[in-house]
Amino acid sequence: MAIAKFGRLAKRSYKSYGFCVKLTAVVILGLCFVFVWSVFSPSKFSVTSQRETFDDFAEPVSANGRVTDSGVHFNKNELKNGKESSSEKKGQILEEKDKKRVKGSPPLKSGNMHKDQKNVPKGKKQGDKSTRHTKQAGEQKIPEKEGSESDDLQEEKQDEDVNGSEEDTENGEANFNEEGEVVQGDTDLANALDLDEEGVEKVEDDSGDSTNSKKNKKKKLGPLFDPKAHYSWKLCSTRSKHNYIPCIDIESSSGKLQSYRHHERSCPKTSVLCLVPLPHDGYGTPVKWPESKVKILYKNVAHPKLAAFVKSQNWVVEAGEYLALPENQSALKGGIQHYLESIEEMVPDIEWGNNIRVVLDVGCTDSSFVASLLEKNVLALTLGLKDDLVDLPQLALERGFPAVVSPLATRRLPFPSGVFDALHCSECSISWHSNGGRLLLEMNRILRPGGYFILSSKHDSIEIEEAMSKLTASICWNILADKSDEVSDIDVKIYQKPESNDIYELRRKKVPPLCKENENPDAAWYASIKNCLHSIPSSVEERGTEWPEGWPKRLETFPDWINNREKLIAESEHWKAIVNNSYLTGMGIDWSSIRNVMDMKAINGGFAAALSQQKVWVMNVVPVHAPDTLPIIYERGLIGIYHDWCESFGSYPRSYDLLHADHLFSRLKNRCKHPIVVIVVEMDRMLRPGGWAIIRDKVEILDPLEGILRSLHWEIRLTFGKDREGILCAQKTGWRP
């Protein structure tokens, strides 16, 4: 009886709790299975084993690689079937990985990047090294060498050559001719290579904290060049044709697009490796300076909209094969000289060429403002806006005046904070009061404390006047002059930025607010405009507390906020010796034909300062991955800009007469793929036919570089090597495929 009763109770319990018992049994069996599997199975099948790196995956290699859209065709030796199939699989993995990345052309991570990382818009994040090389349908990536142990050793050795300190060199010297034979070189060029690279890097590191970058672990992107590649170039097929600016213009050449240029800087998905064609009627020898101030070759600046524009203006006249630009002729009535004199009368503290040296001219009309200031020892940089469909900045460059092209919408301009002595806007068609005065806040950022903002325009409406008055009052700009000039028939307003923070505290409404202390005012590469006011420096050790010395004393004066002034002085003397003893006399360059010069990797402006007595102007480019020395360059009364050489520069084709690159290529090894090819194509775009390039770098860099230049039909005028350092001087021809 008791046994039967117990059986009935057990049966009822099983019916009630049978599901839980079964679930518990399944869980226990599963855990036992995992335990037995992890103990007795090989480690490569273990569920806890994860892959920590994908660096051993090599780039896809094709026997006959072909990049059709980029304009470069690579012919490779056939690989073994095993390696080839393995490469295809690895290429598919990388392709799938690349497709998941955001499209665009962001700045890349290396060394010191912008501290203000949050300013980078989505899709432009720093550190995305593969975005520039995302493959399109039917394309192949630029082939790289298959990874091997010997290649890894070679890369490590190359890294030591690039980044390590240089050993003391002996007095022996060698000059390499075009055949690679050793010829006795001249002493001046040998001395030009005596600069200890370790010392140069030390100057860079000690120049100040980089505001464009922060230390990050580098990821190797492979060799600088492909020694087995064969280059077969083709012309770019773009909407803007011979005036193509890759990161500004829209690339599509088909379809009816309403927009001619990007709203913001936006580079192609893959690196531009095609050659920009010459104008329809060719490109003639530019008119030499200073005659180019008053006339230029018409065909060199040919533009579909230019002919109609010339007919409607009186400051430019078509005269046969030339465009004539008479002196003192301007879009302003009464002439440019009257305009400048009226400004000095309204504000006597504005002394052109003395306390006012560096000026940004926002928008470009006739360049008469820049031309007239140049005679007063004022270096004015023209900022061509994206909406200028006549391409007037190109006329300024052809005439020999500094100019760059950049959108001005939601991102900061590629300049540091507080560097311009004055800003000028004459009929630049910018609604400064729109969007909460965002663009005027950007002008406030780059304007030096105590600097001047000169605004001239036709008579505005009462609503615009009131909005502008309210906006300038909110940022504490003091209006020094507001005058209607009867001769020129324009209204001229001159504002001054405050020199201290005291006035900011007196505002009733703190709108716009002061920026947070951790907001970096110098973060300018792909950084959004902030709707706030940066505090004005107050201590003597900070940049911007004192106005620079007058020109030309300013060039050789280093204020207290600059560290290691002795090293900067030594660097200046070094570049003077190189320029005077080698560049001006030992390169075979006709400097009477040189006007527009670019230093592609400027440090402290030593190269530009050494050329200050020549009839040239120099655009100093500070790479975004390098220490931020651009404020020092502006403090010396020179001009410059931030840029990432993995992307195209914001200027027209055929803009420069001479490009100078000092150890630029070897510093880009871990920033973009095949930097030698990418930069050479960009140099070919920026340089005029007959223009020159002076390149100083490692010998192992110059050897493949010479081969690429020869494939472009450049003439190699000089190659010189001493130990591991070398100089290459080449001249671009007018060849096009």
TrEMBL record:
InterPro entries linked: Put_SAM_MeTrfase, SAM-dependent_MTases_sf
Catalytic class of the enzyme: transferase
Segments for region (Disordered): 65-184, 199-221
Transmembrane segments: 20-40
Subcellular location: Endomembrane system; Membrane
Catalytic activity, EC: 2.1.1.-
Basic and acidic residues bias (residue ranges): 75-99, 113-148
Pfam family, one: Methyltransf_29
UniProt entry tagged with the keyword Methyltransferase: yes
Ranges of compositional bias, category Acidic residues: 149-181, 199-208
Keyword annotations: Glycoprotein, Membrane, Methyltransferase, Signal-anchor, Transferase, Transmembrane, Transmembrane helix
Gene Ontology biological process terms in this record: methylation
Membrane topology value: Single-pass membrane protein; Single-pass type II membrane protein
Molecular-function GO terms, alphabetical: methyltransferase activity
Family statement drawn from the similarity comment of this UniProt entry: Belongs to the methyltransferase superfamily.
Name of the protein in its database record: Methyltransferase
Organism classification: Eukaryota, Viridiplantae, Streptophyta, Embryophyta, Tracheophyta
